[in-house]
Design brief:
The chain is of the alpha/beta class and 226 residues long. It contains 9 helices and 8 strands. The chain has a single domain, classed as TIM Barrel. The protein has an 8-stranded parallel beta sheet. Strand 4, helix 5 and strand 5 form a beta-alpha-beta unit. It starts with 8 loop residues before the first helix and ends in a 9-residue tail after the last helix. GO terms for molecular function: pyridoxal phosphate binding.
Length: 226
């Protein structure tokens, strides 16, 4: 029997992305943006999803982003959102690449971003699920973090959160609704929440940005040892 045809990678990514766009549009109309999470995927995957029409990519790892960036098509540069746990000593190297810092969760990170990227766009990560192993500040600390950002001239565009690890629906809905309420109370336009497994619930709770990787690119390759 002839070998089964294998769809070219860029074509597969395009089909997956277009399918996701239709799915998200049905759920949230034009109010929800898709951030293609390209962590551990090569620059070719970034270029493919941008060619498919995606203008926002999300990266979790500083070194991974910096290593692939020289191969990203500068003529079709996506807007880069840093969504991983952010170490202050990585801000300097990232500030020429990152457009929006989504995982801002403590004063020291705010100080370093303000120093290295004055006026930068940031989103505050809230640990709305209350899980000790997750990034994000406590809900009770959001106001002081927000005010510190404004005092240093940063532009706070919204809030970001990650749902509970166990995916329990009631707890996830509670975390998402809490985050959306906080954003609405402060007049913030963006609410980044929801990934491949819980994007429907996130959109129902008011998400304006979903961060999706596997539904676009497939199984994630392992992180190489550095």
């Amino acid at each position: 029997m002839p070998a089964k045809d294998i769809m070219p990678e860029a074509e597969r990514i395009r089909e997956n992305y277009e399918s996701l766009v239709q799915r998200v549009h049905r759920l949230g109309g034009d109010n929800v943006q898709i951030i293609a999470v390209t962590k551990t995927f090569p620059a070719s995957a970034v270029n493919a999803v941008v060619a498919a029409g995606c203008s926002l990519i999300g990266e979790n790892y500083a070194q991974d982003l910096l290593e692939k960036w020289p191969e990203v098509d500068v003529n079709h540069r996506p807007e880069v959102h840093f969504i991983g746990r952010l170490q202050t000593n990585k801000v300097r190297s990232l500030c020429q690449v990152v457009d929006v810092w989504q995982s801002v969760d403590r004063l020291s990170v705010v100080d370093e971003i303000a120093r290295r990227a004055p006026g930068a766009q940031v989103m505050l990560q809230v640990n709305a699920a209350g899980e000790s192993d997750k990034g994000g500040c406590a809900v009770s600390d959001l106001e002081s973090l927000y005010e510190h950002c404004l005092a240093l001239g940063l532009t706070v565009t919204g809030l970001m959160t990650v749902g509970p690890t166990n995916g329990e629906i009631v707890a996830t809905r509670q975390a998402f609704e809490t985050t959306a309420r906080c954003a609405q109370a402060w007049g913030l336009r963006e609410v980044s929440m929801g990934m491949t497994g819980d994007l429907e619930l996130a959109i129902d709770c008011g998400s304006t940005m979903v961060r999706v990787g596997s539904a676009i690119f497939g199984d994630r390759p392992p992180m190489a040892d550095k």
